[in-house]
Design goal:
With about 350 residues, this protein is mainly beta. It has one domain. It is built from four helices and 14 strands. The protein has a 14-stranded antiparallel barrel. It is globular. The two termini are about 45 Å apart.
Length: about 350
């Protein structure tokens, strides 16, 4: 099944739920009668390494700003604006439908070339007996990585060019509760990563299978975990380089709900991402024999007042260790990064009924 077929199936499933629901005896207005919850906010953070640059690159950039597109530092304050919508009508047989949408706009004060925005849409349709159908879409319209060397196919001359990509992700899944206080969800995911013309040979598609588990036996200590297995493949044949790989990613998260004078909860999350490239071509120095392990740590402290005003202090770190045939590639692709931030947001509801 190709990408366009997946997209058509995705749209068809959503429209089918709406059509079946609206075709029943209940009126459209009654089915749509549900408040709309909004959240708007702003957050500021310090990003230690927004370019995911290696140690050597960080030192080199300080004296050669052209290397990363004219910047002399990889660290920067970050400002983020956000908006979220939550809507829960009953579109199908009186069961609750959950609609979630969000948009984030990121701005880096030290280098606006890194600014980007992202959007997401999630739809969950309850079908009874603690079962649900899941659909989601995420879109990253444009993201600047950095300047990389690109060789002109006509002249053979190499120069440093901007490397950008866009990313779209579709998922379809099923969730149920086979045991009390245990919720499992299973998703199939398709992701497309498409680069600008100078780097279009790197276009990649990824099929993934996702497993999520939520355990809520103790209301004050919910725990969740996720596992993802994916296979990536070349989207075109501009060159003969094999950029395909397998990836296995895992996460585990625990939260402690406190509700102490505005202090609502504290949570922490650990993650491990692994990737193994398939290329066996010794002339392919970038991918041949290459693998990596990336360790992630994230935490947040949440506050809430009057059910409307919320604050979050958050932070995290990433460390990627790369192994490759070429030692220079190991150094070039390995990096460390950390961040620390504060989010302020306001919730409000629109209920015309």
């Amino acid at each position: 099944m190709n990408f366009n077929q997946i997209r058509r199936l995705f749209i068809f499933v959503i429209l089918s739920f709406c059509f079946v629901g609206f075709a029943s005896a209940q009126s459209w207005i009654k089915k749509l009668r549900s408040p709309v919850f909004y959240e708007i906010g702003i957050q500021t953070a310090w990003q230690s390494n927004a370019f995911n640059a290696s140690v050597g690159e960080v030192e080199y950039t300080a004296t050669a700003p052209e290397y990363l597109g004219g910047v002399t530092t990889v660290s920067s304050p970050e400002l983020v604006g956000l908006a979220k919508i939550r809507y829960e009508p009953r579109l199908w047989r009186g069961y609750k439908s959950k609609v979630r949408a969000s948009i984030f706009v990121h701005h880096f004060t030290e280098f606006s070339i890194k600014d980007f925005r992202s959007m997401s849409f999630n739809f969950e349709q309850n079908i009874g007996n603690y079962q649900s159908i899941l659909l989601s879409f995420r879109n990253l319209p444009e993201f600047y990585l950095r300047n990389y060397l690109s060789k002109n196919a006509t002249t053979g001359i190499a120069s440093r060019e901007k490397c950008l990509f866009m990313e779209q992700t579709y998922t379809i899944g099923y969730a149920h509760r086979p045991f009390k206080k245990h919720r499992f969800s299973y998703e199939l995911e398709r992701q497309n990563v498409v680069y600008n013309a100078a780097f279009s040979q790197y276009d990649i598609g990824i099929y993934s299978m996702n497993l999520d588990w939520d355990w809520s036996k103790f209301k004050t200590l919910p725990i969740s975990a996720s596992l993802q297995y994916g296979k990536a493949f070349n989207l075109n044949e501009i060159d003969i380089v094999d950029r395909s790989y397998d990836n296995v990613n895992g996460r585990i998260k625990a939260s402690l709900r406190l509700d102490l004078g505005g202090l609502e909860s504290v949570s922490g999350k650990l993650g491990l991402d692994t990737r193994q490239y398939f290329s066996g071509d010794e002339n392919d120095e970038i991918h041949a024999g290459r693998s990596h392990q990336e360790y992630r740590l994230e935490w947040d402290v949440n506050f809430a007042w009057d059910s409307s005003i919320k604050a979050k202090i958050y932070g995290g770190s990433r460390y990627r260790n790369v192994e490759a045939i070429n030692v220079n590639i190991e150094d070039f692709k390995s990096f460390e990064r950390w961040w620390l931030g504060l989010r302020l947001s306001y919730d409000f509801v629109w209920n015309v009924y």
